[in-house]
Amino acid sequence: MSEVVAGLDLERLSRIAEHLDTQYLSPGRLPCAVTVVARRGQVVWQQAQGLADVERKVPAEMDTLFRIYSMTKPITSVALMQLYEQGRFLLDDPVHKYIPSWRNLQVYKSGVYPDFVTVPAQRPMTIRDLLSHQSGLSYGFSCRTNVDAAYRQLRLDGHSGLSLEDLIDELSRLPLEFSPGTAWNYSLATDVCGYLIQVLSGQPLDEYFADHILNPLNMSDTFFTVPGDRLDRFAACYQHQPGDTFSLQDDPQTSHFTRPHGYLSGGGGLVSTIGDFYRFAQALANGGELDGARIIGRKTLEFMRMNHLPNGADLPSVSTGGFSETPYDGSGFGLGFAVKTDIARSQTIGSPGEYGWGGMAGTTFFIDPVEDLLVVFMTQLIPSSAYAVRQELRALVYGALVD
Predict the structure, then answer these.
(1) What is the DSSP letter of 171?
(2) CA–CA separation, 187 and 132 (whole Å)
(3) Domain Beta-lactamase-related spans what residues (predicted)?
(4) Ranges assigned E (strand) in 251-288
(5) Which residue of 201, 225, 320, 356 is most buried, as measured by CB atoms within 10 A?
């Protein structure tokens, strides 16, 4: 008889390591894989596999530091909603109430930068539009429209030395992809949420995070800039190449993450360990609290993980872009997370109401409130869509549930 812990069969969970090794690590498709599976508030299975730095032959460990990129977004969203709980703003407040230069945002009609033809937005952008990616903003890497081409030209990616104030200023002059609330598009909106946190709290984003989320949860290995004394734990990041190989994309010794390099990105700027991110995810799974430290109210979190798309729509029916950190089918979107709405349509095992997000270099997490289950996975391969590891991981984890 296999050992069962918190209703999970350990022998079945061990298939995760075997699968990752035979399918991804040994064939050289992924550099490393670090996984945590927890249920009912308890870590049931965890393992670090592969190399955090292939060139230097440094093994991945449970305390390896990873670029979590867009897994920064849920942290930023929770931080902003902490201020909502203090009555600092309302979700239907127009963004221009706090960013006056955004009062008369225009919507793209035709043309190329800087000669855009625009029309006025049908209504002002609200803070909920930002949190739910219904703002009309975009990302330069989308490579889909003349608007996101302007983002690339202006280098609005956080690595060009722009300050957060500069970003907000540039965005005020660019047209939106669509009128706020009429569609969904993955975008710089969460970076704008980071700016709003600074405006509403009077603190720089990194200080606010430290005081209100990272220190209370004892997340001592999560930061925007890797400290010099922890560089030996910082993973290399790789780029997927044709033929299912990869090449070095960001050397940990010379990475821009080792020094201040532009604005503090609430949309993708954090570096963390799987243990630290597990603490954040477990606080959410517990309804907003961990080890006596409450970072968000239970009802606030329930509200955040509802589907906030119009009329309960799912992403395929309202999305304008082709990419985000979740498969679209069967998913809606809340305030900072994707939310599973239709399990059969998603074609991936799970429960209604499951929520989570991922990052550009393949990191991911999800929380299943029905099963009181959470999974965090870390690797460093861009783009995250190179392989279907996230969906395979779900099949392996749910296959180990026995009660």
Answers:
(1) H
(2) 10
(3) 26-389
(4) 271-272
(5) 356
State the pairing for strand pair 245-250/237-241: antiparallel
What whole-number distance in Å separates Cα of residue 248 and Cα of residue 201?
A: 39
pLDDT tens for each residue of 111-131: 999 999 999 999 999 999 999
Residue 26: other Cβ atoms inside 10 A: 12
Under DSSP, the state recorded for 397 is H
HSE value, Cβ hemisphere, 13 Å, CA-based, for 165: 3
pLDDT at 260: 87
**Ramachandran angles phi, psi of 261, nearest 5°:** -140, 25
> Rounded distance, CA 376 to CA 363, Å?
8
**Which stretches does DSSP call E strand in 54-124?**
58-59, 66-67, 106-112, 115-120
Q: Which residue has the tokens 């970072």?
A: 295
Structure tokens at 269: 């700027």
pLDDT digits (tens, 9 = 90+) for 252-297: 999 999 998 889 999 999 999 999 999 999 999 999 999 999 999 9
Dump strand ranges (E) for 64-217: 66-67, 106-112, 115-120
| Domain assignments of the chain as residue spans, ordered by start | 4-72+210-398, 82-201
Element (H, E) at 209: helix 205-209
C-alpha dihedral, 84 to 276 to 326 to 42, nearest 10°: -100
**pLDDT value of position 262:** 84
Contact 299, 287 (CB under 8 A): no
Residue 25 has pLDDT above 80, yes or no: yes
Q: What is the pLDDT of residue 369?
A: 98
d(CA 177, CA 174): 9
Which region holds residue 40: left if phi is over 0, alpha if psi is between -120 and 50, else beta?
Answer: left
CA 56, CA 236: separation in Å to the nearest integer?
9
Cα 213 to its chain centre, rounded Å, is 16
Fold of 4-72+210-398: Beta-lactamase (3.40.710)
Crossing angle for the helix pair 189-201 and 72-85, nearest 10 degrees?
Answer: 40
Tokens of 280: 């954040």
